[in-house]
Amino acid sequence: MGESLLTLEQSLNDFERYLKTERQLSLHTVRNYLYEIRRFVAIFPDPIDWNTVSHQTLQSGLSKLHRQGLSPRSIALTLSSVKQFGMFLLQEKRIAVNPAAHLRAPKLNKPLPKNMDLDSVTHLLNIKSDDLLSVRDRAILELFYSSGLRLAELASVDIPDLQLQDRQVKVLGKGGKERIIPIGAMAMTALTDWLALRQGITCNDDAVFVTAKGGRLSHRSIQSRLNKWGQEQGLNMKVHPHKLRHSFATHMLESSRDLRAVQELLGHANLSTTQIYTSLDFQHLAKVYDGAHPRAKKVMKNNKSDK
Known about the structure:
Elements: H1 5-21, H2 27-42, H3 55-67, H4 72-91, H5 118-125, H6 132-147, H7 151-155, E1 162-163, E2 168-172, E3 178-182, H8 185-198, H9 219-232, H10 241-256, H11 259-266, H12 274-279, H13 282-292, H14 301-306
Antiparallel strand pairs: 1-2, 2-3
Helix pairs in contact: 1-2, 2-4, 6-8, 6-10, 10-13
């Protein structure tokens, strides 16, 4: 016969004694265990028969708690309590199989970082200074937002990686995966201005972004310069590379509604299979990019005249 409400309470009473005497848990912990179990079984319309209830039914109960807004910490406590209770029932031979043995906490969606709205990005990129470092930093900011690069990708860009005639940049992403990304018109202008100044610097290697002394700009220096410009441009938020990358993705998705193209541009292999990415035609990506990116819609007259 399955567990009735009466026998469930009897089992909980026995479980309570077990926790206090054999496990020697504190009264506070024991109360929490019992509270969580009672709350859990209460979400089901009918009393749970622990002899016949399925793993899937218990798992759906945890999912329901998640949908109701229960915090991850509370769900973890519920999960632990139910598992412990199932182990106790099995140990006492009150059930033949523990249906809670392989329960898992519902997968929680990681909160996406807050992106910058278009006005904030435009304000950030509107750098008026024309000294060496300002011109370089404007090119860095424009390229981050233009192409959605990761910090490591931008820092490692070398001169041969820039295909300016085709408005493209080649980067090496996570897992050593190479991809080619369009460069917007505004970023092209900023890059052209910076490369003209860079020619006057004796550089240690082919790095696109270098210090005034010619060394490759470090990750930390890039982060510091972005935050500096966020403060100088009066933004009430900390500006960092991933915020610009996320803003790029958000604005592209809002404009194009083409998730697959944006996945390809970002190099997010974990969002889909590599086959889907590589099968996307680059001309399609370029068309989506030119039609959707806020700072790519302005066609460079110089590009037209050069061709």
